[in-house]
TrEMBL record:
Superkingdom of origin organism: Bacteria
Pfam families reported in the protein's UniProt record: Glycos_transf_1, Glyphos_transf
Membrane among keywords: yes
Membrane topology designation: Peripheral membrane protein
Name recorded for this polypeptide: Glycosyltransferase
UniProt entry keywords in alphabetical sequence: Cell membrane, Membrane, Teichoic acid biosynthesis, Transferase
Gene Ontology cellular component terms for the protein in this record: plasma membrane
Cleaved signal peptide residues: none
Protein's organism: Anaerostipes hadrus
Every Glycosyl transferase family domain range: 679-819
One function term, GO molecular function aspect: glycosyltransferase activity
Length: 845
């Protein structure tokens, strides 16, 4: 009967999981496409003679992919190839649809459609000038050529403001690519340095020039004028063409900043100052801007469509006016003059950064259109004046552009011809992948960030896998302000899983992998596919799951290929798994499952020797007993030092207040959240930690209520928040302690409060390695700490008072401090951290 009940339970659970996952996977378009792609990935054969082309997420048959298409399409040896073009809008690309409507060699798919997903999963060759979607995974046997779309003038990759977040899918794509095309040494440096690919790049950078620049050198002017007219653009044969091609500006919300009148005003003012019998002006806005202007009546016949290839059109242009757009670098291959209209130099430099000084540009620049018009009127003098600067930059940027770049690239990729300009970066360091999940505000995160400050980057190449949340300013800040030596991979996109795989994954998460039957149910293939999605072809020597609480991340990291894989155990994991918060065991499911994954790691690293002993005793099996190791966590030396020496404090009527946060966008009207700082005349106790059961706050408050009766100057500061916060507030009110117990919530600079207190107390029921004790010691505080099972590794000789964790013991501990019986000790955080770093290295190797 018991067996029958178990079978019924399994069936019921499976039915429930299937229904819940079906709804979950179909809730959003991203999940649906990921699921569709997974099915195609698993079932579709690779078409060995199919090429997929995508430019700017389907804007048109343009740019480098188009140049490679023209070369492949025109060569007899590839006449049996199928060419599939991605378009985001069939209506605006009707001309090319008509051109190839009877050509069986050329097909078109709509970006994001099921046909697109199928082609992405099945074409042998994939060519893109930006990035494929976040669900993309290069299959074994596919060849991916990322051409990128221009030599950068502005900051790129990790060099940008918030570059860690902004580079997520770009770096992920680069790690999938077999070939990254480079026009010149500036672009090669962009890949290897700005995107931090040196040391991890699995593919090759081919610096042979830019395919699209073949159009500049090989296209006839009359052909392009005819093409412009076919798109309704008015062009006069007997006039020279001035093309105004500015880049886009970013608005506050990250979208393209568009002023519909601006481009017309530029054209009108220039025409008032130049000879319009000699010149005509056309405008080519950035594609983001073009989409917003193309249907406006005043721009009819004036805007060069975003669906036309810029380099073909520029072959008919006599003078180019630009700003920071890299379009002018291509144009220099023609030896024709470039002028620069830059009305917002300072603000653009601040927002995006600029890698070239305006005075080093190969032509004159101004923020005044009247001056730009004067440059046009004296263009011959301008060409002479800037001849040397122009030639120097052309030699550096366009030295490979000879009209035959596409041919060379096709020979290299499709025929195996060797290139003399191939770069793969230096792979001479130990490669470490370390993950800390979502960087929540807790001790694990601060220890992780501290560890990144201690690593010797002459020895290690470090990749940090983290989650981001732009709606959480604190997490977003952490992601974008990690140690600059680290290559930050921000999790993006949804896991690629079929519905069946996702249902099986969720089912085994609920049960764990302790029995062979559930190991057979586990979708191992999906987890291994996810490692490929996240890291492409990149290889690591050492993999560390530093968090250990996320079921998906721990599953994926357990399947990475590496010399050694380690997972951190920051606590008594069995106790943490079974603890109840408000009557619910919130950690049970995730930790029960993750503990069942421990056999798939080489090292199970506890945060202290005592914690290791407890974890080994409770969790080890014959297969895992010898895997248990210990390594102290580091404390965030940089963070503590920064906040101890820098604080935002306001004096109001003689009392000090710490500024927690400043809210609001108006510089003249800020909402300021304040915390009253401890006063010297009081007896100030402090504790810091998540308001959860194991921290034992309620027993501390009960004990403190007894102390206050005889010591009315006593104050207790509780730093942090958590699930028990409401209960704790209620307890404080019931005991009449509102003026004695101060709840600060989470504070960015807790050390401003701690250093003004007199004694730190940690009354926990159980802990891993409490980092707050190290932080309190660095603040010079006497310490009272409870005798939890793993406390031994946190003690220093004559450096604290150890007590029980019941109310009576806590009360006597508080009273002991009042009577001068709680010691402090000599402590140097830098020495401690160096020891911890050495233990970390030993543990993972």
């Amino acid at each position: 009967m018991n067996i029958l009940n178990k079978i019924k339970d399994v069936r019921s659970s499976w039915k429930e999981v299937k229904q819940e996952r079906y709804i979950f996977m179909n809730q959003t378009e991203n999940r649906r496409l990921s699921m569709k792609y997974a099915q195609m990935y698993k079932t579709k054969k690779i078409n060995e003679k199919a090429v997929l082309y995508e430019s700017y997420w389907g804007r048109g048959m343009i740019d480098n992919p188009y140049a490679l298409f023209v070369e492949l399409y025109g060569r007899d040896e590839f006449k049996d190839f199928t060419h599939i073009w991605v378009l985001d809008d069939f209506e605006n690309n009707q001309a090319v649809l008509d051109q190839y409507q009877n050509d069986k060699r050329v097909r078109f798919v709509l970006f994001g459609s099921d046909e697109y997903v199928e082609a992405l999963a099945s074409c042998k060759y994939l060519i893109n000038n930006v990035t494929f979607p976040q669900y993309f995974i290069k299959r074994e046997g596919q060849i991916y050529i990322n051409t990128w779309h221009g030599t950068p003038l502005k900051s790129m990759g990790y060099d940008m403001v918030e570059g860690n977040s902004g580079s997520a899918n770009t770096v992920r794509n680069f790690l999938h690519a077999d070939y990254l095309l480079s026009a010149n040494e500036v672009m090669t440096k962009m890949y290897l340095k700005s995107y931090k690919l040196e040391g991890i790049l699995p593919g090759k950078v081919i610096e042979e020039g830019y395919p699209r620049n073949d159009f500049l050198l090989n296209t006839k002017r009359e052909e392009e004028i005819g093409l412009l007219r076919s798109y309704g653009i008015s062009v006069e044969d007997d006039k020279e063409i001035i093309l105004f091609a500015p880049t886009w500006r970013e608005s506050e919300n990250g979208a393209a900043q568009v002023n519909p009148e601006e481009l017309l005003d530029v054209k009108k003012l220039l025409e008032e100052k130049i000879d319009t019998n000699k010149y005509q002006i056309l405008i080519k806005p950035h594609q983001f801007v073009y989409k917003q202007l193309k249907d406006l009546e005043e721009y009819k016949g004036l805007l060069v469509p975003a669906t036309l290839d810029a380099n073909q059109i520029m072959s008919a242009v006599d003078i180019l006016i630009s700003d920071y757009s890299s379009i002018f670098l291509d144009y220099m291959a023609l030896d024709r003059p470039v002028l620069f209209y830059i009305p917002d130099l300072d603000s653009y430099k601040e927002k995006r950064g600029l890698d070239v000084k305006p005075e080093d540009l190969p032509g004159p620049y101004s923020n005044n259109l009247v001056e730009v018009a004067e440059y046009i009127n004296h263009i011959d003098e301008i060409k002479v004046k800037y001849r040397d600067a122009y030639q120097e930059m052309k030699n550096r940027i366009c030295r490979h552009d000879d009209g035959n770049v596409s041919k060379r690239i096709v020979d290299i990729v499709f025929k195996g011809v060797k290139s003399n300009f191939t770069y793969s970066g230096n792979h001479n360091k130990k490669r470490l992948l370390i993950s800390c999940g979502g960087l929540l505000e807790n001790g694990i995160t601060h220890s992780f960030l501290s560890l990144l400050e201690k690593i010797d980057y002459n020895e290690w190449d470090v990749t940090a896998l983290v989650g981001d949340d732009i709606n959480d300013p604190d997490r977003h800040y952490k992601v974008n302000h990690m140690n600059s030596n680290v290559r930050t991979l921000v999790l993006c996109g949804f896991r690629v899983a079929t519905l069946d795989e996702e249902q099986r994954r969720e089912f085994v998460v609920k049960r764990g992998l302790y029995k062979s039957i559930w190991k057979k149910v586990c979708p191992w293939e999906m987890l291994q596919r996810e490692t490929r999605r996240l890291f492409g072809e990149a290889e690591f020597d050492y993999v560390v799951d530093f968090q250990g609480y996320d079921t998906v991340l721990t599953s994926v990291l357990s399947q990475c290929k590496a010399k050694k894989k380690s997972i951190w155990l920051h606590n008594d994991m069995h106790a943490d798994m079974n603890k109840k918060v408000n009557g619910v065991m919130k950690n049970f499911e995730c930790l029960n499952y993750n503990i069942s994954l421990y056999p798939y790691f080489d090292n199970l690293v506890s945060c202290s020797k005592e914690v290791m002993k407890v974890n080994r005793k409770k969790l080890s099996t014959p297969a895992t007993y010898d895997k248990f190791k210990a390594a102290k966590n580091t404390a965030n030396e940089v963070r503590i030092g920064k906040y101890l020496n820098s604080e935002t404090v306001m004096d109001i009527a003689g009392d000090e207040y710490l500024v927690k946060d400043e809210l609001g966008n108006d510089k003249n009207a800020k909402l300021i959240d304040l915390v009253a700082l401890p006063k010297k005349e009081n007896i100030n106790f402090v504790t810091m930690g998540r308001m959860s059961v194991e921290k034992n706050h309620m027993a501390l408050i009960d004990a403190f209520s007894r102390l206050v009766k005889n010591n009315p100057r006593a104050k207790l500061y509780l730093l942090g928040s958590g699930p028990l916060e409401r209960k704790i507030k209620k307890q404080i009110d019931e005991l009449g302690l509102r003026s004695y117990v101060i709840l600060t919530g989470n504070v960015k600079n807790p050390f401003a409060i701690m250093k003004r207190c007199d004694c730190f107390i940690l009354p926990s029921l159980h802990e891993g390695q409490p980092m707050v004790l190290l932080e309190a010691r660095e603040c010079g505080l006497p310490i009272i700490v409870s005798k939890f099972s793993t406390v031994k590794d946190s003690l220093y000789p004559k450096g604290q008072l150890v007590i029980g964790n019941d109310e009576e013991s806590i009360y006597h501990g508080l009273e002991a401090f009042v009577n001068g019986k709680v010691p402090t000790c000599d402590f140097k955080l830098s020495d401690y951290n160096q020891e911890a770093y050495e233990e970390f290295k030993k543990a993972i190797q």
